[in-house]
Amino acid sequence: MANSICDFRLLLLPAAVVFIYIQMRLFATQSEYADRIAAAVESENHCTSQTRLLIDQISSQQGRIVALEEEKQRQELECGQLKLLVKDLERKGLERLIDKVQVPVAAVVVMACNRADYLERTINSILKYQSSVASRYPLFVSQDGPHPDVKTKALSYDQLTYMQHLDYDPVQTERPGELIAYYKIARHYKWALDELFYKHNFSRVIILEDDMEIAPDFFDYFEAAAALLDQDKSIMAVSSWNDNGQKQFVHDPYALYRSDFFPGLGWMLSRTIWDELSPKWPKAYWDDWLRLKDNHKGRQFIRPEVCRTYNFGEHGSSLGQFYQQYLAPIKLNDVQVDWKSRDLSYLMKDKYTNYFAEIVKKAKPLRGADALLKVHNIEGDVRIQYKNQQQFEDIARQFGIFEEWKDGIPRTAYKGIVVFRYQTTRRIFLVAPESLRQLGIRDT
């Protein structure tokens, strides 16, 4: 019996040890789970806090998005109103503005060299009409060479910008006896036009010489002509000059013509044309070079009946050639023409041929060597046909107009036709053999 009790006690000891071990493990597991639960609760609280913060940020961003949408709508509304305003200003024909500065119609450059007194007279004539439109026609004087009196005179005017071309490279003429001056002039023109178009970035330039006076409507005329130059690519340049613009041969200050002959003496060209001419500009005689048909490429020039410039330069590089006979008697327009109200669409290429043909068609045809005598007994316009250059020169000499041709083209001619007034308001048309056919007029 005693042994049985002893054996039972021995069994209780391991059971107690196992029980204690199980209790300890259970306590450790409960502590671990408690720690995990605490960590989970803390993590949940952090997530909740972050979620609330994110919700607040989203709400804030949504508020900004709404504000930006409202600002976008406001700006779109203002932009629409500005577009309507711009269209209204364009409709009313108001001048374009960039940064509150008017866009120039063209730069005006006076080409000078060594005639300070001539330059002063020219500048004063320009400023008389340019001052009120100075922002649209900025004035430049470009001097070729170092003549001190010319430079001093140009710098004495605050209303203009002075440029100086100093070229000390020796001149090699291509033919014996040629004047070096013509080579220097060609160099000066290229330099000055490159400066104005490429350095100053003008879209158009009006070229004058230092022995010219301008008409009261000079700037209005070129502004109207600028629109033609931009719209019609068959126009190479616009001139203010008529070679047959002497007092006895002109009448109508409103009349404009197209011509195959480059008039020069106060002319405007665009940068597009200069981009083409500048790389191949000639070494000398630039004006004769511009009159070559190959350089025209079928394009023509606009000229007035009554000149908008007057050339008083009896003494210069040309040594007064033609001055007394052709230049001194030129009539300078004295009528203030409102060019903005004039419809000049008839000068566009697609209209002008028919317009000019109708005028020529109505003129009474005359034939024979005594055509000049017959003119006196006829009222209205007259057309006289010439067979060749020699006959044209003979007829021109009788009337007193320019006889000169360049590259097969008489001065002022359009399709071989030279037009001028004679004695009264009537027009005389000197007509080449092929002219009527080109205009679609049956010879009668």
TrEMBL record:
Metabolic or biological pathway, per its Swiss-Prot or TrEMBL entry: Protein modification; protein glycosylation
Which keywords label this protein?
A: Coiled coil, Glycosyltransferase, Golgi apparatus, Manganese, Membrane, Metal-binding, Signal-anchor, Transferase, Transmembrane, Transmembrane helix
Q: Which GO molecular function annotation, any one, does this entry have? A: alpha-1,3-mannosylglycoprotein 2-beta-N-acetylglucosaminyltransferase activity
Q: Which cofactor does it need?
A: Mn(2+)
Q: Which Pfam families match?
A: GNT-I
**InterPro entries attached to this UniProt entry:** Glyco_trans_13 (IPR004139), Glycosyltransferase_13 (IPR052261), Nucleotide-diphossugar_trans (IPR029044)
Catalytic reaction annotation: N(4)-(alpha-D-Man-(1->3)-[alpha-D-Man-(1->3)-[alpha-D-Man-(1->6)]-alpha-D-Man-(1->6)]-beta-D-Man-(1->4)-beta-D-GlcNAc-(1->4)-beta-D-GlcNAc)-L-asparaginyl-[protein] (N-glucan mannose isomer 5A1,2) + UDP-N-acetyl-alpha-D-glucosamine = N(4)-{beta-D-GlcNAc-(1->2)-alpha-D-Man-(1->3)-[alpha-D-Man-(1->3)-[alpha-D-Man-(1->6)]-alpha-D-Man-(1->6)]-beta-D-Man-(1->4)-beta-D-GlcNAc-(1->4)-beta-D-GlcNAc}-L-asparaginyl-[protein] + UDP + H(+)
Family per similarity comment = Belongs to the glycosyltransferase 13 family.
**Which function does this protein serve?**
Initiates complex N-linked carbohydrate formation. Essential for the conversion of high-mannose to hybrid and complex N-glycans.
Protein name listed in UniProt: Alpha-1,3-mannosyl-glycoprotein 2-beta-N-acetylglucosaminyltransferase
**Organism this protein belongs to:** Acer saccharum (Sugar maple)
